[in-house]
User: Fold these one by one.
Assistant:
Number 1:
Amino acid sequence: MRIRRQAVEGRWGQHWGQWGRQVAVLGAAAIALSGQATAQTKFDRSKTVIFANGGVVATLDPMRTDYAQTSFIASTLYDTLVTYDKGGKLVGQLAETFELASDAKSINVLLRPGVVFHDGSPVTAQDVAYTLDRLKRLGLGIASQIDGYDKTTVHDARKLTIRLARPDSLFLGALSKVYILEAKLVAANVGTDDAQGWLQTHDAGSGPYTFAGRRNADIVVSQFPGYWNKADGRPEQIVFRRIDEGATQRDELRAGNVDLAVLGMGYRDAALLDKEGRVKDARLKPELQTNIIFNTRTGPTADPRVRRAIRLAYDYQGGLSAIRQGNGVIASGPLPATMSCRPDLPAAHRDLAEARRLLAEAGVKNLQITMRFQPTVEVQRLEATLLQSNLAEIGVQLKLEPISFAAYLASVARFDSIPQMMLLDDFAQFPDPGSILLRGYRSDAVGTNRSGYANPKVDALLDAAKASSNPTQRCDLYKQVQTILDKDSVIMPLYTVGRPVTYRPQQIQTPEVSKVVFPLAPADLRLAKKS
Amino acid sequence: MNALQSKWLPGGVFVARRLAVTALTLLGLVTLVFAMIKAIPGDEAQVAAGPEASPAQVELVRQRMGLDAPLVVQYGRFVGQVLHGDLGTSVSTLQPVLDDVLKVFPSTLELVIVTLLLSLLLAVPAAVAAATWRDSTFDRACRVGAVAAGGMPTFWLALLAQYVLASRWGLLPISGQQSLDFSVQVRTQMPVVDALLAGDLAAFVDALRHIVLPAFSLAAFFAAQFFRTLRASLIAILESDFIVPVRAKGASFARIMLRHALPNAIGPTVTLVGVLLGMMIGSSVLVESVFGRQGVGAYLSNAVEQKDTYAVLGAVLFVGAVVCVSNVLVDLLLLAVDPRVRAAQLHGSKR
């Protein structure tokens, strides 16, 4: 009987009453607590740039600047010893002078005087040594670019010598990716993980901006008043806002809620915005090239004539105008057209008759091949489909298989598991031709030589270039390598790719491409000049 | 057995049984996710070392992270760590996964709570009215609406709502969690709560405006499920025998509904809330992506993309634990308030 009565009456009413009272008490407590809150500084929108980018910022530790998202922010917080100017020339940043020894086994550096970290401590040779030693210890991220590092000899507060384990003319360029940490500050927060945890949310740099904090999904940096390299028009704050969806980036730009969008917006949306007029597309051309990488070791693509025939089948012009909205140029060689030391090679072109002849000469009939691509990259899906239809015209059946980048990296970790063909964007961490050629085509570069290409002559030329401290000689050697690679059709270069970078000209000046931060360095942004 | 034992023992046994099932569920979840993540092609050491790392560097990272051990050892090690409250280290942030998840979870929790409230706010009055005026035009319209809302992809609805309500009409913010004009101290990582704690009414309204569209996009599907369940339960209750004497005694419609029908009909809906909570957190990834919100969904999607094994495992386990705990709480709640459930669960009776 008791159960029945309770079923009819229910206890919900009683409990709702109790919960209501509890919620009221909690609400009152919240309001009471609110008096203790401290408001943060408000933004002057006219001097703030809101930078929308796709992808997560996993850490602010500059060791991970191999990821574009971390690189954007680290490049505002930190300085490097050297950097590349707009013309691709290596110039000093923290280094007042720098010199690669004639045997390419050491680099003498003299630091710029009067440069301080964000806490006011001077930047010293000891900080440079600490940074390089930490990278060597951890062996993660950008450390892969300086694997020839041995040790640093500190002569005094401003003079140091970086010593290499073997001759490495690329090392100097790689230093443009190594952001210098304040040794004393990092050592004080070293923890058990060499300060990786601390640096995830703190800065220990001397760059033009300091880390001002996170606001939910946003990361905010504020101008550092003590920065050594003053520049007019630098925004007071930059707010990095993660927006993955291109459509959301587009609408926020239109509404004036963000000032710049990179990594996320498609070519079509960017072109549409540019046409509307209030938002422009800077169409930056970074050191980026879209290639199809052949497996040169096994299968039908081991025959250079087959590779050449496939190269001649693709409709490069059609793909560039229809898929990339004309954003880029047709490739002419293994390196992006924006790089130096390139030989005069013809641009990729279509010649179906020659393609059929080469296949016949190779004795190949009813060829079936497989190409992997990343389905998350919309343009790759379209380009893969275009190639599929183009190859059908010369009797080649192309099977398309999606693959994630992580899975692709695992597949190239051994030469015997390299995919037959892979559509991939190739990017230079810094604009030295050797940074692409040495990792991409040396026969022993397992993991980064993604075609499995082996040619003793190319190895010898690359070794000679790496050991040479003479820029002219290196350039000549790199040109010889590229000519051989093109003749052997090791890869199928498609386009030196332009990247849509949409911005509001009312708020910022036209962004420019960066040679070391892909595709632009936020610290280089300048506010629009008000008339 | 004394009176005290006979009163509390069945409840204790039930709770112990429920907790044991929860622990087994979580262990099964860990095993399944571990097997799945290892089956996906990719190399965590390569991801951690970077795409341009040499084989020697990758091997060094592999040894340091213990990824060179056999899978069984890695699994055993992970389960051991979990028992000590350690969910492992992420290969992309290189930080303890638990710390990473705890940083982003409040944002998802805030979205889920608002979504839940919005779903119930939409579903309960509609279900009450639909059950009361059964087969009326209103009832039919609600049923059609529920089918449409239940079948609409969340991602598409989010994009549509964003375009029409925010981009075209400017009624609500397009994305983000708080406008730059408002800056309140971050205490809970939940902007609505932080604004409330700061006593900043304008910031509170602003944060609330930012969460309306994401919550609405997510709520449409769940509101449809709650509506259908509650409407069916209400119709059954309103037609049951015990309502007749209540009506005969001249009770008002409001009294019948609020004191008798709704309290007795809402049980299945409460159970459904517990069941759908996990799905709500899972679906949040799509909404977080469209509206540029941080959260555990976005964290998990990035971890899968990076083949960040321990981040995936840790985040799934964390979400799994939240869902399991909320299910236990829902069960205990039902047990406390519904004598029929109590009789069935504790005494084996189905009265």
Note: DSSP finds 15 helices and no strands in chain B.
Number 2:
Amino acid sequence: MSGLPILDISGLCKSYGAVRAVDSVDLHVGRGEICGLIGPNGSGKSTFFDCVTGLAKPSAGAVKLDGQDITGWSLNDIARQGRILRSFQKTVVFSALDIEENLVIAGQMFTFPGILSTFGIGAAARNRVAALRERARELIKIAGLWDVRFQPAGKLSGGQQKLIQFASMLMPEPKIILLDEPMAGINPKLIERVVDSIRLANTSFGVSFLIIEHNIDVVTSLCKRVVVLDQGRKLAEGTPGEIVQNQAVREAYLGG
Amino acid sequence: MTQAESSAATTGRDLRAPFGLALVALACIAPLFLGNYPLHAIIIALIFLLPAHGLNLLLGYTGLLSLAQAAFFGIGAYTSALLAVHFGTPFYLNFLAAGLVTGAIAAPLGIPALRLRSTSFVMCTLGFVIIGQAIAKNWISLTRGDMGLAAIPKPYFALGPASFTVSGTVGFYYLVLAIAVLATLAVYLIVRSPAGRNMIAIRENETLAESVGIPTWHYKLVVFMISAAFAGLGGSLYAHYLTVVSPLTFQMYYSTTMLIIVLGGGAGTISGVIFGSLLFVGLTEALRIAPELRMIAYGFFLLGLVFWFPNGFAPLIGRLSSFLEKRK
Amino acid sequence: MFYTIIEQVVNGIVSGSVYAIVAVGMTMIFGVLRAINFAHGEYYMLGTFGAWFAIEHFDLPYPVAIVIGVVATAVIAVVVGNFVMQRIVGAPAEAGVLATLGVALILQNTVILVFGGSYKFFSGGYIEPVTLFGFTLAEQRILIIIVGLIVFVGLELMVTYSRIGKAMRAVSQNIECCAVVGIDVRHVALWTFILGAALAGLSGVLTAPVNVSVYGGMGELITFKTLPIIIMGGLGNVRGTFVAAMILGIAESLVATYVGLQFRDTVGFATLMLVLMWRPHGLFSAQARF
């Protein structure tokens, strides 16, 4: 884990009128690193994600992905690269389709160069889809969803859908995944499974992570480094152990 | 092939290959025991199958409700008619031209139209039909207005010195049957391709589809054009079969019929559309049901679709489908 | 020359009034049900047929025929409203399109089946010409303009002061809150629909003496003219729709005189297409406003 950080954000600002949702935040995530982003409610974490992934345009600052400047790019342009993906708090899947279809769809546009090639009926197209299926099945097994793989995704539990969403994000073989409160609303029994999946994705596939999370146990066990936001500004940065003991951080959580 | 692909309602896979082939074989020998009038009914049903396939791709698979099929049907009919009447070109030329011209025209129409919200989009597609009829009525130098174009020659094929004219109901029946089978095959290939999967993704959840990198707007445009081309090809057959085209080829009634075929037969399934066409168009034509009664039946059927059976006949066909699958 | 233009504009105001009476009904229905009523023109046709039937078969005088036409339309609207329109409340847009298409097919073709497809002659109405300010107009046309104004003013008053009017406004603005404050949404939807359909029927009855020919398919053309009006006037916006209707009436009249009669019926949709392609949100505010 050395060299250029996979995600390098400097001086990011986002203002909505007079309100500064994000105020000059610097953040970087190294290759293969799992980094946590915490802070009290309203500290600008989700807005930060929005600016990085193209849902919102930053008012100032720069976002560099693997050395490439993607500041201000649109959601679709960023998504189509497949190198940086972002989850949403609300879990969405293609409810009527089974897990494998969900995953294959999630991976298709990153394998096929363009619309016209997706109409292909030749061996090349079929091979690509076969490769996608292979990967999909692998991910289904890792997520422990093999037994329910034929069920329509909409019929599965919230936690299982979260796993599907997570697996979908691994299909394009991204460099870094931004997770927005991945443990929210998940049955405590499944949390361990999700944590394991994240760790597995990190070690087996080398995917970096930047995770917004409120569950301190999860943050401590998963993240190597944690950044704390408060009212749009970076308050502190360090290992989970350091952060937990940081006076300013404790005040922000209790006083804010 | 996953087990899930076999549920016809979600991915439209037609597994009844032997059954389908048997049906095609049956259709091939049908003229031996069916009189001219039933054959005529099937011809009309198969002609309408083409625009219905197109609408199915647009509505059933991509989730976009459009009333424009009649407009492209008309454009295809007139294109073919004009070529045949003014230049005497062989059928395959008229036929292909109809598809190409219609597909091409769909592009400048679809680009602004697809920016609209669903209600406005539906209005816009209706507008295409109305404007189409107005143009057909008023561009008299081209279309001869209300008089229309008559005496469209029977389809003929020319290969070097050899030429061959399709005449008679039976001849036309085989021509249309062949084209219908090819068209169904084409739709099947599209639906099975990765593009087909993306179309379904757009229908199921457009925002989610966007977020996994699917360029939804581009797909909608491409499918709109393909759908239009299918309608144009159907129009070409219609023109050659009736030997007359008039501004009445552009009427909303045709769009409504195609809508019923797709929704009633089962949107998002190929077998459903074939069934729908044979049932709603073929059967009603064969029984010589008065047009008014037919439309009243359509009306009640539409109400039924909205309130009671949104999937049309798809569940029944699905049951037949799984029954056949287990038998193998 | 100038005289001719004024004359055409006056004619345009007459047809504009006809359209306005029909269109405000359709736009109100959209405001409350969020559904485009593809069958709206059929109620215009039903009103006409009701009046025609009263005159042809019972020899009733025109004023009575007006009442019968409107009542007949209202009765059918009650049936359609109960079985179809009420169920569309809260349904996705496509459901409304398909359901009202279905109703249109049924109404139109039942009438053709029962009364035959031929054109009927409408005798009756105040077709005596009257001269005002140097213009000669049939009395009926003046009646149409007057009724148009009455309808507009009446609706404004009803919506502002009456209880049902306020309920209509509430439903069109925020349907979820209405259930909470105790407004019976389906009830409001039903009565808005009946009112809208009855207005269309009224328009049909008033126009019949001017159009003279009555036939089962006449509703479709009205639907195709009303759709552009309500979209360009702003879906649910009664005032905008009224203005758009007048503009269309006048535009049609001028086009018919100076460009060609054959283009008259296309003006509405052609303009709509141009607007949709260039200004997707219509000309007026699309906020449902009564």
Note: DSSP finds 15 helices and two strands in chain B.
